[in-house]
């Protein structure tokens, strides 16, 4: 995670051009990964965040969000996904867009120049149910790891006094492969 975001920050140092599109809903534990990351980034003082717990960028809002992105923006999409049992708690990091809603059969626009997909649970026949029954502890831990890695990569320290940042370790547990959401 840290190496991936460091490389993105090296290529795109201007925080004003970076937009985090944090996809998901506050009404589903597993799907709240994106909005939790967005909320934490907002608390860190990140200037451009779409998708927080207060204003989620869910399936109903993602198309509108994609249309209103500035043309010169560098978009980093963040979303939850389902994967193999041994991948739960890992991240799928990519240069390129993420396809939100794939696990539950939704056709939504691809989003992002870069993407961070958090594998919050294992894929299975009832993907929607898997997202609903995902461990909140796991999702919170993963969201903190992403926010801490962003803070380190771009050097935004506004949220340290709120308890976000140094107390959380950055995980480099990264997998290759397809994200199922």
TrEMBL record:
GO terms for molecular function: peptidase activity. It holds the Pfam family DUF1256. This is Spore protease YyaC. It comes from Paenibacillus arenilitoris. Keywords: Hydrolase, Protease. InterPro entries: Pept_HybD-like_dom_sf (IPR023430), YyaC (IPR009665). GO terms for biological process: proteolysis.
């Amino acid at each position: 995670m840290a190496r991936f975001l460091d490389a993105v920050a090296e290529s795109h140092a201007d925080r004003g051009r970076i937009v985090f599109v944090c996809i998901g809903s506050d009404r589903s534990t597993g799907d709240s990964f994106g909005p939790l990351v967005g909320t934490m980034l907002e608390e860190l003082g990140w200037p451009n965040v779409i998708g927080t717990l207060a204003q989620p960028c869910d399936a109903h809002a993602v198309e509108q969000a994609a249309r209103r992105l500035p043309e010169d923006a560098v978009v980093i999409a963040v979303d939850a996904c389902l994967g193999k049992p041994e991948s739960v708690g890992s991240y799928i990091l990519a240069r390129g867009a993420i396809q939100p809603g794939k696990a539950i059969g939704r056709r939504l626009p691809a989003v992002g120049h870069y993407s961070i997909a958090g594998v919050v649970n294992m894929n299975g026949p009832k993907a929607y149910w898997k997202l609903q029954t995902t461990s909140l502890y796991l999702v919170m831990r993963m969201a903190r790891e992403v926010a801490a890695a962003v803070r380190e990569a771009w050097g935004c320290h506004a949220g340290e006094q709120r308890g976000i940042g140094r107390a959380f370790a950055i995980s480099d547990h990264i997998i290759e492969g397809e994200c199922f959401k």
